[in-house]
Amino acid sequence: MSHVIVVGLSHHTAPVEVRERIALSPEAYAGALERLKASAEVKESVVLSTCNRTELFAVTESYHGGSVVLESALRALDEASPVAAGARRAVIEDAHLYRLEGAAAARHLFRVATSLDALVVGEPQVLGQVKDAFRIAGEQAAIGPVLDRLFRQGLEVGKRVRTETEIGAYAVSVSYAAVELARKIFGPLEGHSALIIGAGETGELTMKHLKNAGVGTVWVANRTAAAAEALAESLGGRPIGLDRMEPALAEVDIVIAQTGASEPVLRRATVERAMKERRGRPLFLIDIAVPRDIEAGCGAVYNVFLYDIDDLGRVVAGNRERRAAEAERALEIVNEEVARFTRWFEGLDAVPTVVALRERFEAVRRDETEHTLAKLAHLSERDKKLVEQFGTTLVNKLLHGPTAQLRHLGGGERSVALASAVRYLFRLDEAGAEKERGAPERGAAEDEPRDGTDA
Question: Would you say the pTM of this structure is higher than 0.90?
Fold first, then answer.
């Protein structure tokens, strides 16, 4: 029987100076996959590399194939990455690497796809990265029935968790928390404008999130004109001097301050004058500077909403608790899906596939026999038994060749491919799931048209 293996390292096991040495861009996946395909031991492979992880998923003919995967992967990285091979291997230690097999490998992929294994739980980008890795492996003809099933199911699990839980609904970074609060004040952010004071990294990131959320006009105020112009250009906004802040306050709805000044750059008196010009329209002030840029008294002005870095931190802490609760539900979904994949994978062995195929045909025979005999109530008991015997004989003869071939193949790549095809064509996994739930198996009445009619 083939083995599903994942070998890799991530932010859990390796610092950034190690991860950056083996990281691959999506453009480099093809070369790494070609190297993996060159190994006779590796039957299927997918490469996934992000800022937080580099992992190689593979199907091998033996459990010991994991070491082959790792060695092939390192050679692939030597060829695909400009970093010298010796320098790369020098920083990788056994303690950095993990290797998972079977159900553990499936669980790992599902945790990655659902962002449960991410640096920030609930982060939405990783599902797209998994999808890209799967697509590229398909384009390189590096995947077969096992990884095709595993990754398709992984993408389904990721979407299911997004649909059935709120794991991504609560902001767990200062930047996202600011956007979440802005939505609570203004509702949809389309058509609103914002001012950023200073050119700090967190402030810039917050403004980018606001832009992505729909904020339109952006103003950038900074002590240095060149810095204001550069940031304004990156944000698609317009630069102004610090002396133009007060007129801007009468126009914008959201203000982000992060100058690094030793004294507040925005005083209560300035805000009060601006609010008179605004005629009561709310103003949201986000102060993420330490020392603070906005005088605390500004928050006491009517319809002014002021949050400093500690306020945002408390929002983030509360949201982390909410996400943790959602993560528990997401983990339940992952475990359900791992069990489903394991049942499918174990079914690729010839014996359970033959048993499931026979049960499927027997269910159809039983349904069709009952349906036919119901129309032939005038038959004698002897004739009814002949009808039943005819159905049994027909099923046995139809299945003899396919089941003998499956048993004859034993294990190996061809056996896995054929068993997978049989299970898909005859929907054996669906029937098995219904049987476990106690639901009646779908027979001919639900699967196939009767009396020669088209579905």
Answer: no
